[in-house]
Design brief:
The protein is of the alpha/beta class. Helices cover 45% and strands 12% of the residues. The longest helix is centred in the first third of the chain and has 18 residues. The protein is globular. The relative contact order is 0.09. The N terminus is likely disordered.
């Protein structure tokens, strides 16, 4: 039985490109050799008429195929289990676990597991842990009586450890976060684009909101305690670069961002930014890259939580059946953006 989660044309394209992001989603069986491989297998490709696609190694074995000794497709499941176990260990730990210790606990060599974890989640184990701790700090800053208590509650060994990296990740000082953004200045403007009026807003660290059909009122509702001021000349260059990204999305503007989310959301956003121009990814693929293949709905939610339209290109996300799915600013805009990138 061929795989039902990916159509044969998509599977063949992934196999032809040796796309690692599809490893674990299906296996490729070759009737002329009697073996099955993972999509990224480096061996010479067989003819299309000799290929069958199966959901997993077990199905391929039932059909009479044996595992490829070169790409070792049966180990993909072991890799995913190791990454899932490592994520659980990181989330349960009070401090960041050293790479050597983490790799030893899941049964891999450190350097190999480092590459494996990053390929599966989009971030390194240490970056995943830092993101998780910063997320806890953000939550604690709204719950604890003092900033210091919140820092310790989030798992930092001392306030200095938080200020070394956590504060930068939050995009504002912890005391400002505690006060709901009070003391943070956000500059804004509304720029004309071929897709309609676009709100461009930024802190001194980077873009915090890029959206269509919104203005100052929506920005104040989203950031009620920040100082909202007109952008003026200070925002002109950045706004022009945002507009250029809308009009020519195939050009990388390398724009600074000041957005935060959960560790999983940030992994999805990073995965979106890594999609080459002219290509798309399914929500299942994004969830897999973000480290949780079953969190397909959460991957869609992460796309919906994207604060910076076009800059984090959630218009490149689609459903597994090839349909486009939703888009916060209307399907018509999503179609135009995709067409400009060469996606039909």
């Amino acid at each position: 039985m061929e795989t039902e989660t990916i159509n044969s044309d998509t599977a063949w394209a992934a196999f032809s490109a040796r796309d690692r992001s599809f490893d674990g989603r299906f296996v490729v069986a070759v009737s002329s050799t009697g073996i099955y491989c993972k999509p990224s297998c480096p061996a010479r490709h067989p003819r299309r008429e000799n290929v069958r696609f199966y959901r997993d190694p077990a199905e391929a074995r039932v059909a009479g195929y044996r595992a490829c000794l070169r790409c070792k497709p049966d180990e993909v499941g072991r890799d995913r289990i190791a990454v899932a176990r490592a994520v659980a260990l990181i989330e349960a730990a009070e401090d960041i676990i050293a790479l050597d210790d983490l790799a030893e606990q899941v049964g891999y060599a450190p350097h190999h597991f480092h590459r494996l974890f990053k390929r599966a989640t989009g971030v390194t184990p240490a970056a995943y842990a830092r993101g998780l701790r910063a997320q806890r700090a953000a939550r604690a800053l709204t719950e604890e009586a003092t900033v210091t208590e919140a820092i310790y509650e989030a798992g930092y060994s001392a306030p200095s450890r938080f200020y070394e990296g956590g504060a930068k990740r939050l995009g504002m000082t912890p005391s400002a976060w505690k006060r709901g953004g009070a003391g943070v200045t956000i500059r804004w403007t509304v720029a004309d684009t071929s897709l309609g009026a676009m709100l461009v807003a930024a802190t001194d660290k980077g873009l915090c909101r890029v959206s269509f059909d919104e203005g100052e009122a929506a920005l104040r509702e989203r950031f009620p305690k920040a100082e909202i001021v007109p952008g003026g000349a200070a925002l002109a260059d950045l706004a022009a670069r945002v507009v250029a990204s809308v009009e020519s999305p195939d050009r990388d503007q390398d724009l600074p961002l000041d957005v935060q989310g959960t560790a999983f959301q940030e992994a999805v956003w990073q995965a979106l930014r890594q999609i080459p121009v002219g290509e798309t990814r399914t929500y299942t693929e994004l969830a897999t890259i973000a480290g949780n293949p079953r969190a397909v709905r959460a991957a869609g939610t992460a796309c919906g939580a994207n604060q910076v339209a076009v800059i984090i290109p959630c218009h490149r996300a689609q459903r597994a059946d090839g349909s486009m799915g939703g888009y916060a600013y209307g399907i018509d805009r999503k179609i135009v953006l995709r067409n400009r990138e060469g996606v039909e």
